[in-house]
Specification:
Largest sheet: 2 strands, antiparallel
Shape: globular
Structural class: mainly alpha
Number of strands: 2
Oligomer: single chain
Helix content: 55-70%
Number of helices: 10
Distance between the termini: 34 Å
Strand order of the largest sheet: 1-2
Radius of gyration: 21 Å
Number of domains: 1
């Protein structure tokens, strides 16, 4: 199902942009496909390399995340028990909202909507924002799915043993680690926060992503350590995409005709 989801999003992205460019004839379906695959390929390599880089101290951050996940794992059972003992109708409804808000399907639809809206408004900023959201989500969902199936951790709804792992067994409800809802939510929050200059909005994005993670624990769908890893993985995917787009921005100086002569203009791609 996830493979189909990725394919649908990618095709929507390609066909939307191709249709927009049909009048000018400057963009072909083949070039868009190649460009999209190239970006994801470069970002995938960066996603693998970034956590173990030494020169910029990324390895220390990775060790810190590993320590946080490990520490949370120690208290997984206590956290799960405490939340399950605090059930209530209001909290149940809030958790339902949080789970819905964290649905990876909805996030991919949002990416396509932002991208399409950018095209309709002829806004390069929002077109690229849609691209970044989509790329971050694909990386987040794919990496999360890979770790899930590799680790095979039992969800708390089916086992009381937080250490119940069945690697590569592909059993139902043995795909708890990490939380894909949380990974996707933090990838989305990372992109939105990076493209916003409003501090309260940045805080709102991350607060919403955190709420999604807590909702998944409250609903007994995930252990707390699943959510911690999901948050870190989602943030990593978002930053990888942001760094790639920032480094690929093109800025240059070109001649420009003026009313009283000629000059130079600084042009760039956001």
């Amino acid at each position: 199902m996830k493979r189909a989801l990725f394919s649908i999003y990618f095709l929507v992205l390609i066909f939307t942009k191709s249709a927009h460019a049909a009048d000018s004839g400057t963009i072909s379906l083949g070039s868009e496909l190649n460009d999209g695959i190239h970006r994801l390929g470069v970002e995938t390599v960066a996603l693998i390399k970034t956590p173990v880089q030494i020169k910029n101290n990324n390895i220390l951050i990775t060790l810190g995340v590993a320590g946080a996940v490990g520490l949370t794992y120690v208290f997984d059972r206590d956290i799960q028990a405490k939340l399950q003992n605090s059930k209530g109708n209001t909290l149940n409804k809030a958790a339902d909202v949080g789970s819905l808000a964290g649905d990876p399907f909805i996030h991919l639809g949002l990416a396509a909507l932002v991208y399409g809206g950018g095209i309709a408004a002829n806004s390069q900023k929002w077109k690229e924002t849609g691209e970044m959201i989509g790329e971050a989500l694909i990386l987040a969902d794919a990496s999360s799915l890979l770790i899930k199936e590799t680790s095979g951790r039992g969800r708390p709804i089916v086992t009381t043993d937080k250490g119940d792992f069945k690697p590569f067994n592909f059993k139902n409800d043995y795909d708890s680690f990490p939380s894909m809802h949380t990974t996707s939510s933090f990838a989305l929050a990372s992109i939105l926060a990076a493209t916003s200059e409003n501090l309260p909005m940045k805080m709102l994005y991350y607060s919403a992503a955190t709420f999604v993670g807590v909702s998944r624990i409250y609903q007994n769908k995930h252990w707390a350590s699943d959510v911690v890893l999901g948050a870190a993985l989602g943030e990593l995917c978002g930053r990888v995409v942001i760094n790639y787009h920032a480094s690929s921005s093109k800025i240059g100086i070109v001649p420009k005709a003026l009313d009283d002569g000629v000059g130079l203009a600084l042009v760039g791609k956001w």
